[in-house]
Amino acid sequence: xxxxxxxxxxxxxxxxxxxxxxxxxxxxxxxxxxxxxxxxxxxxxxxxxxxxxxxxxxxxxxxxxxxxxxxxxxxxxxxxxxxxxxxxxxxxxxxxxxxxxxxxxxxxxxxxxxxxxxxxxxxxxxxxxxxxxxxxxxxxxxxxxxxxxx
Length: 150
Description:
By secondary structure, the protein is of the alpha+beta class.
């Protein structure tokens, strides 16, 4: 998880949030299953023709897209995985769904920021959601005849 997880630009206006970085070699949480490391994810999506072969995914964004490094140029792209258009061919979809972000991984990572405004908005939403969850669980617990005071 990243503390500085927001990438944005003003011209053109664009903003994305990094969800997580994909492990490069080993992923202890998934018992080193290849489907959960960079190489396995890349080969699976390349073989299924769901990702251009020149894009290597290194992170996911909150829209379920990939953040990728172009292995030929070093440039960074966001790849929108859920935006497939059946009226276009594979190459046209690849081009349409690849959004240029930065000329290098170093510049991309150095451009990530912590967005306090978004954090405050999420905090209010999280508090509201927590209250609803607490009410739900309190109701369930009381229905079961147990009294738990929060």
